[in-house]
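Researcher: Hi, I'm a grad student and pretty new to this. My advisor asked me to get structures for two proteins we've been looking at. I'm not sure of the right format, so I'll just paste the first sequence and hope you can take it from there.
Model: That works fine. Here's the first sequence with its structure tokens right after it:
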Amino acid sequence: MYQIPGHILLSLSRHLCFGKTGKTGIRFVLHLLKSKFGKTNFMKLTPEDINDQKRFRLFLTIPYRELIEFVFEYLKKKSLLIYFFWFCCLFFFCISIFIRIKVAGSFPITHIFLHSFIGLVVLPLICIPLHELLHVIPFLLSGAKNIRIGMDLKQYLFYVSAHRYVATPIQFRVVAWMPFLIISAGTAVLIFLLPGLWKWSLSIFLFAHATMCAGDIALLNLYYLNRNKKIYTWDDVDKKEAYFYEKV
């Protein structure tokens, strides 16, 4: 939702109202715009707000140390979203195989091995900061302040959390989808534009990055399987826990 700032309202009203009735006109325009947009002001919820048991019900808590178990559990839960994700992974894999067949015999085997290493190791490592940044941007745009990036090497996980920021269902979905959609689309364009072995290394990176998004897809599957509910979530990064609430 959008809220027009007060200084813009005042500037607009001064341009529309003039003469002896200017002050009355200003008050009228301000009242009109306030009544029009006042109801759409987005009142950000706080963790204290959604702890109100009359309005919200806590139905899931995920300790960060158990994230990998959660990911595997929700990747196994069948849904159209999961089928779509695995279809994309299979499709990207087929693209890489097709390109590999095309470059076979056209380049020295050492060059092919080098670009295989680039696509499977170098590019995924370079992409980690970009992937996390694409999670951060929607949080920033939605007004989150205390955003933290973390990692758990025991679980092979990197994550972005907005400490004590309550995300709406739409905000959470945008945050979760951004890296998969943007990086996949950008890589596909580069595969089309760049020549030779770069098509091969980028195609296997496209597949590798899709599999790296499994954690995001698992969280999205939680929302998909509970799509009849309005789910709000927030993280206590100090306690390393994520909470999911259903609006009653």
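Researcher: Oh nice, that was easy. Here's the second one.
Model: And its structure:
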Amino acid sequence: MVIERIFSTNESYKQMVISYNKTDGVLAICFFVTCMVLLYLTGWVLVQFDVLLNSIYGLVTIFLALMLVRGRKQSVQTVGITKANIFRSSLVGIILSVPFVIFAVIPRLTEITHPIQPLYVLYSIFFYLIVVSFGEEVVYRGYIQPRLHGLIKNNFLAVALGGIMFSIMHIPFQSALYYFHNGQLWPSWITPLQLLLWFGWHIVFNEIYRKYNSLAGPVILHFFMNFTIVQTIFFV
């Protein structure tokens, strides 16, 4: 009974998923392919011109997702942007973020030996919270994952495909960097274990979204996970 409550799916999420058809599914896949191409180009521009466009890429994908939603005459609520259950979803995200704060953030705070640059900190928060966390949640959990059910009726297979897509999404940008520096398309550090880890995070983020039909929790957890594992915002 407890397990069923923990992994339950919000009724409005169920109804939303049922409403999607093959057109929604095809658009989701096309959008994913577009994101992959844009990610590779973002890496290519960085290598060729030393211009970092990651923030622009993130904002563009959020904009494209919202335009696709509008084009299909769907509400922004269908990508998890809603006030409903925002408190419960946020609370779950905060609770699950506690280990990252305790075991990653706090220890690193004691290691700071130079002045903190406020502008850098603010930019880092903006980048990891809005561009990365909010952006990826809107694109992969909010837009793509639910609409895959329009093509794949089996819940397990649809979520598995979403997880695979989220995992390989991390490759194009790094592939562009690695190819131009090392002449190889596949970054050596992206191992099957790393792909499995990204797949697992998709399952976690998606489960929180399904339970509350709100992206608040996934965004919070995604944010703390990123700035503690990928980069601590307090270091230059």
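Researcher: Is there anything I should tell my advisor about the second?
Model: You could mention this: Residues 232-236 have pLDDT under 50 and may be disordered.
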